[in-house]
Amino acid sequence: MSSRPPKFRPDAWLATLALVAICGISLGNVIVRYATDASFAFTEEFSVFCLVVLTFAGAAVAARHNQHIRIELIEHYLPLWARKVVYVLQWLAGLVVLGIMTWYGSTFALQEYQWESLSPGLGLPNWIYVVWLPLLSVAIMIRMTQSLIDRLRGREAPEVVHES
């Protein structure tokens, strides 16, 4: 058992809730479809929304723990000063991509709000679904920055060995 106290990670909780919601919606839909030969109309719309939230919240968790897919071979053979330069370049590249996603995602969410667009399945306002893209992109940027600070200070978490 870990000696560290548990940390409150809203992104991890959000990812967990989204996964539980997807499982519950899908299970309920399968049971109803099996029993009545009909299905719930809202399940696909909510499942896709939860899947997007799960993806972005999980990416924030992965960014905080430095678990994203990347080529580490170069990092291991570089001297410490060069490794820190690579860390900053990785961080900058991530910020550029996520900054673009935040900008265009927030513009899109604002347009959906102004145009009062409704979702095709349930007729809910589309901005409710879209606003999560820029919000969770900012969360990923914050987690990437926290991870960069830890890596530059030499407080990296032990590497995870993945078996293939």
TrEMBL record:
Transmembrane segments: 12-34, 46-64, 85-106, 126-145
Residue ranges of domain Tripartite ATP-independent periplasmic transporters DctQ component in the record: 22-153
InterPro entries: DctQ (IPR055348), TRAP_DctQ (IPR007387)
Any Pfam family: DctQ
UniProt key word Transmembrane helix: yes
Membrane topology: Multi-pass membrane protein
Entry keywords, A to Z: Cell inner membrane, Cell membrane, Membrane, Transmembrane, Transmembrane helix, Transport
Subcellular compartments: Cell inner membrane
Location (main, coarse): membrane
The protein's role, per its UniProt record: Part of the tripartite ATP-independent periplasmic (TRAP) transport system.
Subunit structure and binding partners: The complex comprises the extracytoplasmic solute receptor protein and the two transmembrane proteins.
Entry's family note: Belongs to the TRAP transporter small permease family.
Protein name: TRAP transporter small permease protein
Lineage: Bacteria, Pseudomonadati, Pseudomonadota, Gammaproteobacteria, Pseudomonadales
